[in-house]
Input
Amino acid sequence: MKHCMEDLGWYEIKNHFQHGSMRSMRVPDIFWHAVSFEDTPCIPFSENIRINKFPGMVQIVRKQSLTYAIRRLCQFYPSEFSYYPRSWNIPEEYPQLVFDHEQLTKGGKGKNFWLIFKPDDASQGNGIFLEDNPRNMDTNTNRNYLVQQYITNPLLIDGLKFDFRIYVLLRNLNNVEIFLSREGMVRFCTLKYEEPSVSNKSKVYMHLTNYSLNKYSETYDHNNSMSRGSKRLLSSVFNYLKSEGYDVDQLWTKIENITVKTVFAILPDLLVAYRDEIPPNKEGPRCFQILGFDILIDENFEPHLLEVNANPSLNLDHEVEIAEDGVLIGQPAPNHPGYQLVPSQVDEEIKRPVVLESLLLACPIQHRSKTLKFLTKYGVQFAVHYPDGQFSNNEDPIRQEPCLYLVYNCKDSSLDKSDSWRTSSRYTCSCWETGQTEPPNPPSAAI
Output
């Protein structure tokens, strides 16, 4: 966030919260929350403020809530949601799970039918386990779980299971706008994949792609190459898959459809939460939010939505074990003795443009032209998307296209000429000399 503010020529307002009120010399243009809309004791209610969280989003995209939302829409469009694995919410649906399991495995069919148990209140892979029979689960637990049919035939690269982290920007609810990032992250397991069995069901490095788990594996590859290592660029993996004969364009279209359908599944709950917090007759801030969609591809090249993250990690570093000599090349990792944080070029290449362009899209209209002029003045290369599809910067074909693009607009899916600013692409230069003057009244952000 701070890197992007510097790139844009914005500055930070350090707000102080006392007795439930915000005390500051100036109300910010963009209010940046850490976790959720509700995590700050005082939210400035002004229609001129943009907040990077929607009310209720964290609860709405939790595993069980997301399942209920998708089921609700699936009742009307049953053939449109095959991308979401068969699911049961436990303990409420435990009897149904047992019955369905018996039917699906009766007579030897479903020989390799496995279930994955995900705690509803957990994240980063914590508490997840595999079982081939729901009766093996401890039914005395007070914890809520989402149980899903485990996808036993994932597509593999170099024998490793992987999934995609797709970044989506949701802006507006009444006039829904959904933006999709062209670049994403591919996260790899660190043990060669084998179909689940009693002997390997506990091997998290084989079955779970979460970085938070695999970073502690001895075989985790911290590689700053964009096309190798345990984290890779989505574009590099797509190039590889295309070279292997896969239709990545068709796959991307399916991923676009997944994001739009899923947003529409949670939209009714979002609108209720939004209007409860900010009634239509009350002046209030406008919201936007970056979401992380986790998508797995099976061996038939079909995408499956695993979950939606309300707070995808936007960190630009990764954890590396400290060498035996104790020499640090980064900062000590908080709460993880023996590890240090070092910059990750892969994370920066993916996340920094997403945040920068999200801020541009959220920027109040009175500051947009000033921000774009600032980028031009200090040599930051950007491309503006015009209705005819041409770009103003033809010198760098790799960065001609913006990072975020509009995948759905309830008014008009085409870009209006007056909104051509909305697709400013990622920067190509962000290193400026110190001492340069700021543009008059630059946008501000509170973090």
